[in-house]
Write the structure tokens for this entry.
Amino acid sequence: MPNFAANLSFLYQELPFMARFAAAARDGFRAVDLDNLRWAAAAAAPYGVALLIEPINLRDIPGYFLNRQDHAHELLQIVGAPNLKVQMDLYHCQIVEGDVSMKLRQYLSTGRVGHIQIASVPARHEPDEGELNYPHLFALLDELGYDGWVGCEYRPRLGAVPGATSAGLGWMTPWVRP
């Protein structure tokens, strides 16, 4: 069962930034930018930094250097730092490479994926429409033993109107833990 984390730079844009934390918690997100930030800061303190690299598609950010999973994992091998991992954004992965199920099977087994993010493709809205079958992908994450956070980095379909993020969270209901 995936653990969802709210990416507050995308979700709850209808609210002032500091109000987004309470709204996300009220809607069932158990991780939003504070507890995890404290944990990450404490864990990284002895090393000075914590690192995630994220391949991003060239449609959204033309000219972005890192846009493929294989390239990201190659960089991890070259650097050789145990605290360097890949942030695997399934939205970007689908746009650039497709075959997301096989990419998850391939790269989760390495132990070098530090975080997963989701959004619909191609519109980057709630993950209940478009090219990716998220119920299948969530079941695959369970099958592969992924117990990390799944970041919800999408633009709510209803935009930045009051209540837009909360109104669009029906997709999450089957996977929310009590």
